[in-house]
Records
---
Amino acid sequence: MNVLPKWVDIILIPLINLLLALIVAGIVVIFIGENPVEAMRLLIVGALGSSYGIGFTLFYATSFVFTGLAVAVAFHASLFNIGGEGQAGIAGLGVAIVALNLDHTHWLLVFPLAIIAAALFGAAWAAIPAYLQAKRGSHIVITTIMFNYIASALLIYLLVNQLKVEGAMAPETRRFAEGAHLPFMHEMMGWIGLSMTKTPMNISFIWALMCCVGVWLLIWRTRLGYEIRAFGQSEPAARYAGISPTKIIMIAMLISGALAGMMALNVVVGGFSQKLVNDPIQGAGFVGIAVALMGRSHPVGVLLAAILFGVLYQGGAELAFEMPSISREMILVIQALVILFTGALENMVRGPVTRLFLSLRRGAI
Amino acid sequence: MSDTNTAGRAQSAPAIELKGISKAFGPVQANKDISLHVAKGAIHGIVGENGAGKSTLMSILYGFYKSDAGEIYINGDLTPIPDSQAAIKAGIGMVHQHFKLVENFTVLENVVLGAEDGAMLKPSLAKARDVLTTLAHEYELDVDPDAVIEDLSVGHQQRVEILKALYRQADILILDEPTGVLTPAEADHLFRILGNLKAEGKTIILITHKLREIMAITDSVSVMRRGEMTATKPTSQTNAQELAELMVGRQVLLQVDKKPASPGAALLRVENLSVRDELGVEKLRNVSFEVRAGEILGVAGVAGNGQSELLEIISGISPADSGKVLINGDAIDIGKTANPNMRRHRGIAHVPEDRHRMGLVMSNMAWENTFLGYQDDPAFEGSFGFMRRENIIEDAKQKIERFDIRPPNPRLKAENFSGGNQQKIVLAREIERNPDVLLVGQPTRGVDIGAIEFIHKQIVALRDAGKAILLVSVELDEILSLSDRVIVMFDGAVAGERDATKTNNKELGMLMAGMAGEAA
């Protein structure tokens, strides 16, 4: 039985976990010989202290929203999609194909087509593990991990042998022409007369927010979402209700793959790079797992968790710049601690908090 | 002098004595103040329905669970058993219903596992080989020591489990439903082994719900019902029908007010239905019957005799191997493509036996459970696949009111309702569809008395409206008070059919125990 008030479950416990992670990170910072309070200040100011910082933070967050939603949708069907990395990578290929062929036109044409391409390519990459799970019982965790490696190898092969600019050294496509550049947030702010520092944050962020709403509607308002949740919570009950496990596994994974694929929009045609490079995803697919866990597979939670990780990415980069003794690897340690405490050790805090609330309630009666 | 006295006491002390064992899981009292004596060198049977608390009790004895209260005496000495290592030390061995063997190890490796003599395996294996040869000789426990487990038949795998226990010098053997997966010939062989073990002075506890086995090989028997030990008797002074009554009977006899049935045409016909499980064990053999309009057909039987398979096949959840199911005279699909949705469209509603796993999604709210299975109904599904939440919640409120579901809150999660109210949610969902055929499994399992009466009334009302009802229950009283006709299932087949007004507990108990000849 659920004894905790909702706000404790959704807000208090994640906050306590986050605090614990920061305390442990602070201890590590002390060992390095730096002041943890100063480090914390630099991190937060670096991420949120200026429109520049905020722009970068939300640029990173955009990617994490997509991969987080992808993992969340699969979670509702009790499937653990670890393949966001590969699905997004292959989707990057789809986006690049659209951009390379249509960058002489206009972003208004490229954007919707790139969305479709990202969704199709991402879903297609998720379809094979989904089919193997549904029909052959091959565990989705294993197959999606494997498919990450295949995707990475395939991307390198295509970049080196097909898409590379002739004579160039780097395994990457040519830079897209202006017509494929999605509008940056500072440009869009300019349209309505506001000014903002130039950052890679772009219109994909708005699309990410729309996807949050879309996933919420799908999971809690449609028959399909109802069937996905019923299957995820009790397979016997789903079979009793005439819900085909095969169908749900396939559909949930296709949606998950499509959402992961959207992430490619942000980094391929959204940000500063404007070309498909080797490893365009940079681990965002894996961050999505932590984001979905921390956000409890709810779109609002995913959005908040994605912003938190955006803060860690951007603030961490600033921190590494300001405090040279804190290296890039050190930032990774802090991120890992957050993932550890909010994801893996979530139940560590839940038990004591539940007991505390029970004793408080008993005291009140 | 004092030496012989101690020896005398040890001789007469029971092998196992339990005093006042209690164990609760949350609000469920699985074992209530249980006391038990098992004499040395005896085969003692424990019978009871699923969920009666047999397995919990044995798990306490084997150290898997810690009892909330009570004491365990082994050979007269107070012996706390905090874990299974302590149980093994006390000379207790357990053969689980689901074998705990490493499939790709050999027999020898499995026997030695956890009882190795040192870091090197070879001496242990050599010693085990000797012991195994002796044991095989003594007890007819022949198994090839070098065979890999996954290549062995189920019967042989079970022997390995017994060998494992004997290798650890067990004097007390607990067998949990040992014949559930065995063919009759394998079961006979097992009983010979048990007889040999008994002759060597081993004490055996046999957990089963097959009364014939109890009568055939035990010296004494205890009956458990709802967590309590309701009777312990020498086997010679009881009989199968008495045990059946003790197992399933309920003192509170709720008389259901119902008029005589006026059955019409057959709405549901089942012809020669047969099915085997993945292991090849026959679960249904040539089952045939019909249920007519305005009639309740009760399916009696001890749990596990094919009733669950019957319900799952008719409701389209799992396929049959052969046979026919006809609704209103039309044969419906019972193959691999069978689908519960098609059944629902044909007017079959199903209240499943296990409402927690199947009938409800426990973590979903009540209103989300009031249309489970009917989610494609246009009344509930609007355009673009959106749920018509207002309609569904309004409909849920009406069901809650008509079925007096408490608390009357459609937004409460199913898991937060009591058992009786959970069952009312399922019944409301299925009965309110006004189906032609209603399949009901264990309608009142874990349901309080008040709700039982209400549920029975609803089922009878549906019958009086001219519908066909197939009622599966392990509660004989429920079968007798609700049904118009009764069939009894035993070992996957229909053991007999009776007019409900012209039979009694005794006769049905005989059929349930597989003694059709004596019941005739």
---
Amino acid sequence: MKETPISTIERNFVTQAVKHNLRLDGRKNDEFRKITINFGADWGSALVALGETKVLAQVSCELGVPKATRPNEGIIHINVELGQMAAPHFESGRNSELNVQICRTLERTFKDSRCVDLESLCVTTEERVWMLRIDLNVLNHEGNLIDCCSVAALSALLHFKRPDVSIIDNDVHIHSPAEKEPIPMVLHHYPVCASYCLFDDGRLAIADPSVLEERVADSALVFGLNSFRELCCLNLGGTTLTSSNLLLQCATRAARRAKFVVDYVKEVLELDKLAREEDRNSGFTECVRLNKITALAENRLSLRLRNFKLQGTDDLKDETAMETSGDEEVESEEEDGTEKPQKIVSIDSKSAILESNQSNIKWVPDDDGVESNIESICSENVTEEGDESERSLSQQIEKQMQKHSKKESKRALSKKHLHDDAGSDSEEEAKVIL
Amino acid sequence: MTEIVLPGDRISAAEELAKLKKVILGPGLRRENEQVVVCKAGRLNYKEPNAYWIDSYQQRYVPVRGDAVIGVVTAKAGDIFRVDIGAHEQASLSYLAFESATKKNRPDVNPGDVLYGRLIVASRDLEPELVCVNSIGKKGKLGVLTDGFVMNCSLNLARMILRENCPLLRSLTKEMPYEIAVGLNGRIWLKAKSLRETIALGNAILAAENASNEEMSKICENIGNILFT
């Protein structure tokens, strides 16, 4: 089936509305949609909903032969499935442009930033390593697939545990979970993506675009960031000119968003762990029973005023609360977590109208598609504190912009400071106060 | 009295009535020899004196002759326009099917335009065909729609708004002035004084989908309060 064509009046309406600081679904320009994460009964399966966009992620592993160039490192493969279930105009089985773009962005965010400790996946050098496969199945497409996929991939990776192995007489024996406790993944840092769409010749940015906004926008801007404000991936596609000022402000906001999302993922993981320790039922069936997974994540109105509340929503919530009398604690905690984004956003009442007042800004034209992808892995020293880290982020981006204008090599090789283990995360985060 | 029916059910009341006079079968009902069989799940409706039909929730539009629909022009192909009306196939619209259009005086319609037209051909084997004039060659309320916004909704909502006894639009007029065109293909064109009012209007209409008549006026008041405070 063909995608429904977009009419001129819709296009005009959306661009006009964005210019007047209005969004069709009542969000503020820099407001993201609500994110919910549910874990399956198996290790490494997660269902993530960003508004109505839904992605199901499953991590699996098998033993394989490593690459000759990297004999002691495991292999990660990311696969994104865009079927007709996501949107009727997607064709499954054929690699569309969007599919490749999402896949590549995720690869840059997760593989090229070296967030997974690949050496820990090695069983015997040059012979056997674990090959991880992250399958992302898009269940519903309502805009901003990249963000949703990245969160799904991250939470599935963090949730995943691989079976333990022992080598007896050059023979690898894989232990079942009953024999030996499965081993969790080692992640050095937790990257997620945050997308923006640019309007009005690159003078306005809106966060977390819906389908209509995505299609109308001049260009899309995707940041891959981890909770330490390090840039893992930056993708700028489209045709508009972008001021460096706007780019920096978006990056700062995206970093804040990344930190929030990562904190939320950790929180949900913690809850899941708790539930498993207490031998409570977990998994999707339980979520469905508790009304946590529903066909529509929220009472959705495609057009919506900011303060509008659909009557009866409150009653519905009460009902679900009553049904889940056994898990009241978990429920309430979860709700707290989901409320957070609104709080964070409301603190910052300034919306994302970011006019560039500098006339001498060097505009970076997006002349050709290949070069428009500013591609880089950047990780500077992260032990810096507060404002310094902010400056380092801006340096990273400026560096990339220069690189781009000079059309030099695509990879910026910068100092790498990778953490030895994920355990030091909490310490580091305490230092980097945003 | 409403009755829920499932595909395969027989409507004996209609069969009985058919013995006395002509019976009209609406959407969801089919005649097989002397039997009236349901082919869609939903609520059975009856209207005096002789009409039966089934109300069901549906998003996909199936063209029906005589329906007023909203479409998006996708291409100009020779002397016809291709119009997307959300059906299985694009509809065609002749350039002569506009008021006072002649071979020399072509209407100004471009790809991307939204228009309000009426279906004159809708058969399962033929391409649907639209016109933008009524039977006496006047445009009436049909034609190209400018400005405003087009939103999608379920077919039921579109039908509900157009029902004579629906209080929704009447109570909305108390809150703000607006223009509206409702296509039976589940598309609604809205235009109010400002962008915010247009969004408010759409919000009220979408929120009224499952509301009773009293709730509708409450929603409209609520929208008015949010809009002008």
---
Amino acid sequence: MTTPNVDLTGKIPNNVGLSDDVKLRRALETWLPQYLEWWNDMGPSDFADKPVFLRTAVSVDPGGWAHYDYVKMPDYRWGIFLDPNAEAASIKCGDDAGAPAWTDVPGEHRNTLRRIIVTQADTEPASVEQQRMLGHIAPSLYDLRNLFQVNVEEGRHLWAMVYLLHKYFGRDGRDEADELLMRRSGDPDKPRILGAFNQPCDHWLSFFAFTMFTDRDGKYQLAALSESGFDPLARTTQFMLTEEAHHLFVGETGLDRIIKRSAELQRQDPNGDIRNQGGIDFDLIQRTINYWFTYSLDLFGGEISSNASTFFATGLKGRYREDQYTDHRAIEGSYRVPVVEAGKMVEQEVPLRNAMNEVLRDAYVSDCERALRKWNKTLEAAGSPTRLSLPSRRFHRHQGLYADHRFDPAGNPISQGEYEANLGRWLLVPEDNAYLLSIMKPCYEPGKFANWIAPPNKGIEGRPIEFEYVRLD
Amino acid sequence: MQDVAHVSAAHPVEFEVDASAYRHWNITYDGALARVAMNVDAAAPLREGYELKLNSYDLGVDIELADIVRRMRFEHPEVRTVVLTSGNDRVFCAGANIHMLGLSTHAWKVNFCKFTNETRCEIEDATESSKQVWVAACNGTTAGGGYELAMACKEIYLQDDGNSAVSLPEVPLLGVLPGTGGLTRLVDKRKVRRDRADVFSTTAEGIRGKKAVQWNLVDAIFPRSKFDEKVLERAKAVADAASKDLAPGTRKGVVLGKLAPEVGPSGRQYRHVSLTWDDTTRTASLTVAGPSAADVRTIEQGGEAMREAGSDLWSLRAWRELDDALLHLRVNHMKVGLVTVRTTGDLATIQAHDAALVKARDHWYAREVLLHMARVLRRFDNTSRSFFAFGDAGTAFAGCLLELALASDRFYMLEQDGVQVAMSELNEGGLPMHNTLTRLQTRLLGTPDQVEALVGKREPMDAEAADDAGLVTVRLDDIDWDDDTRIAIEERSSMSPDALTGMEQNLRFPGPETPDSKIYARLSAWQNWIFIRPNATGPAGALTLYGRPERPHFDWQRV
């Protein structure tokens, strides 16, 4: 294959010295055309020639990381940025806490680091694939724009991870970067690595739940990796977190707007029947929460995990906001994990390091609880008696201690029969999809919103809500 | 530390299992194809203190597998391809359970590894000698002992899903070696380039997809959606190829009946075998009774008559009993260091038995009986106990039973009228050691003339003649016998058990090396040494700390 002549430095905004890095340039020259091919095949369907009001990071300066303008998605400038605050970083956790951070990959941890990076990287293109058809049924131009913003930034996050693979992992890294473009979400033969990223995301209720719950796992994983002793990984993920915040905003406010609208429709209908008004009923919203929250819990890994212990001990992955802790070695502490023994829940004390996945999951769950409280306030303000909740973290799990047992949403052990009999009450079922797709028709008129969702409180970057966020003409 | 190895006379490990109710395996038959799916019950470990997660195995899981491999050959002679796969959706097999290893004494680990090795070798023996070809359908993660199990199969198919990898993570992750012949099979059997084998064996996550095929770590990869279909296709092709030139005879299986020994506080009495032990002197006595004239008559009628006689035939039953006794001794009587071996019966009857068996050996069943006999003798060769064979009054070391004397570390023979030994066809071939030689050739490696002189010799030999022929270690008359054998036993029992094990293993296998002999030799020499080193099992060793929050600390000195 001949290498296309690509003007990389012009196309790729960066602060990693790309123009002076022959090795990195050579790797990206081969990878970029493959990436664009993947974007064309698997990125948002049918909107390639439409100008979208997008935020692009063109530099890491305060004014540069959020540059807004109309861009056609294939022309989006996927950049490579490291957080600039890098004076004399140190290893933040584990046995070597306090020692100078690694600026290059330590051989001892090379394979482990590569696996961590590949697993994180794999989620980025996966979500783009999962969401590729959603543009056709967007509830507004505002939401359509947000979808595309999320998509291009997930694409950029893939770039950020591929940068690490290309720059620090030699030939293996290049091979892994290629494979990131070959796996496909939901493909039985080439699935994405993690379960939640192979689940279908067919409608906007799932999209919002995905960006609320699954992208939020991403936030916590990135935050834990931003504590890494491998400095390039820490700085890359720190910068990714700034963009990830918007994705979480899309999810959290998206669900909030649906909840708000459903409460309005409930009030409007003489029988309080939301579906009768073409809206999304609260049972369905609760089932969606149950579904995506639990799939996202799986992403944190096993409750008692040797890998988690190793990652922490070696300083490759810290806790959420490691600086809030005083003991960064965590060799002494323990953690009580509820385990199933002879059909009953009992607490098992495990060394803290082996429970690091659970520690991170705790931070995640309390963040999700915060969002639930907010939504319930929305319900309260709208005068609705309904309250939404998070299911137990034992419910509907496919990874970890609870995967081999059955629990109800409250976390009580139940039989397989009872579980199966209630699945339709607890989780998304195919009939839900049919209903949601029946009400989700595109709404492309500036300032208009589909019947099942309330408008946002304000527009993007000071623009009004009726701004033409995507030019479809 | 709790010791899962703790066994006692009250709770011995039993090697006979209920074949109608395997706990960890599902078996289905479809004509020439059998499917053996590993589906380990995590909550059913052999000893308390660990869970068998992710299709990891302990001795209990492997005892069932050994039973499956053996029964398949006798009970399902119609099966040509055995597809070894997993009933777990994500994991083919994660290898030996690390927590079990962490809780085990050194001796338990060694016994465990040895037994699992014997099972892997038996899988290869079934493939090569019985045309019952085992293939591995790795439908998920295939790690460590899981990959070694796959390597014991003739072909390996790996699911190509971007995730499933084969790996030997022992060195980088646990600071030990793959314990069931993985390294040897990698370079000697699969002929993986040694430099690539080096990379593979130090990459904890392993290798998947096309690269696994390119490096010959697996024979084929199939996509997930077509995996079962492609494996079936391949299994049928393997079965067709294995169906050519099959040994004749009605391919109707022989059910292996229960051995059900009479178990007492100091002995196990089988129909033909007796094992007694004395914990104070740390000795055991093993006696094997020869075949009856009726057994010989049955065999003389040929393979079909043997098959119809079933598993009660001496040639199978006695050797199954001996096998069980050896395993019992190994695992449940760790402190017994010396075993005296005796035989009873009639020399001429044994010789006639062997001659008839050799004559019938074209028949598949007779062949299986012989192959089984050979395997039991190899288990004997590999048992880390001192064996002294005693040919005294009433002895019957002839033919296949003479092999027990030749397999022993020493053979004491009484000079007395009527005390004789005798050769048969089976001393000249058919019961090879792991080094491919007969026990006679191995014993007389420096004097091939003596081997030549014995070939075809059927007249019984008294102690003097046997001594001249090179078969006897110590010849004693009846005045010296009692004292000298007593002293020999006491002297042997006083020496370091470790040194004796090492010495015996070094002395028992002169002559050529084979993959099997390398596997056992390297297991004894390297793996067992590494297992006991602080870098693996010391307080800061990698195996000790696996799964714990602390990281290992190595003594960097190369030894």
